[in-house]
Structures are given as structure tokens and as C-alpha cells.
Design goal:
The protein is mainly β. It is built from no helices and 11 strands. The strands form 2 sheets. Strands 2, 4, 5, 6, 9, 10 and 11 form a 7-stranded mixed β-sheet that branches. The protein has a 4-stranded antiparallel β-sheet with strand order 1-3-8-7, with no helix packed on it.
Length: about 120
């Protein structure tokens, strides 16, 4: 079955950067080009929230207002991978970050912890 595996989380100081990666495997009917890929996050005690989305063409992106200008989503269709470059990190960015794939069916990764703290 389709699997999404995140990596790249960790502890970083405010103002620092991290890059998350999500590798997608186990395709059945559609390959990676058939997937709109997104990142969501969930902070302790809060609902899961949308962070960023990228369409299959790689040129169409959307961002939550809270991360615009600081985060960049991209994808490598040859590597079946989506990335989230996070710059100018703030303590309020602390959360578990989830990769999401939408092919008409919905798929989630297991999550990657990002902690922004001095």
C-alpha cells in the first residue's frame, strides 16, 4: 500500500532552519505525479492545521498565512519526494509535522517532531 515516510525533524533555535522530507512509495494505480502533496502540523493541545500544498506540476503552491515568506514547499517527481524548507523558525512553529498525499484517496505519514526552542 501507499506509504509516506517523513524525516528531518529535530530541535532548532529560534531563527534557525530545518528541512523536512517525505518519501512516497507503494503506488498502485497512480504514480507520484497523480498526488497533490501537503504538509500539516499539530501542536500540543491544538487541532491539526494546514501548512502548505503543492500540485503535481510543482509550480502551484499554497501556504498558510502563518508561514508565508518563511516556509517553502517543493517536490522532486523523480525521487517521489516532497520537501518543506522552514526558515526563520519561531517557537510557535513547534509541532508534529505530517506529510499528506491526495490522489482522490487520502494518505498520511507518521509525523516528524519539530521543536523550536532556545
Amino acid at each position: 500500500q501507499v506509504q509516506l515516510v517523513e524525516s528531518g525533524g529535530g530541535l532548532v533555535q529560534p531563527g534557525g532552519s530545518l528541512r523536512l522530507s517525505c518519501v512516497v512509495s507503494g503506488f498502485t494505480f497512480l504514480n507520484f505525479l497523480g498526488y497533490t502533496m501537503s504538509w500539516y502540523r499539530q501542536a500540543p493541545g491544538k487541532e491539526r492545521e494546514f501548512v502548505a500544498r503543492i500540485r503535481a506540476d510543482g509550480a502551484t503552491t499554497n501556504y498558510a498565512d502563518s508561514v508565508k515568506g518563511r516556509f517553502t514547499i517543493s517536490r522532486d517527481n523523480e525521487k517521489n519526494t516532497v520537501y518543506l524548507q522552514m526558515d526563520s523558525l519561531k517557537p510557535e512553529d513547534t509541532a508534529v509535522y505530517y506529510c499528506h498525499g491526495d490522489s482522490g484517496f487520502q494518505y498520511w505519514g507518521q509525523g516528524a517532531q519539530v521543536t523550536v526552542s532556545s
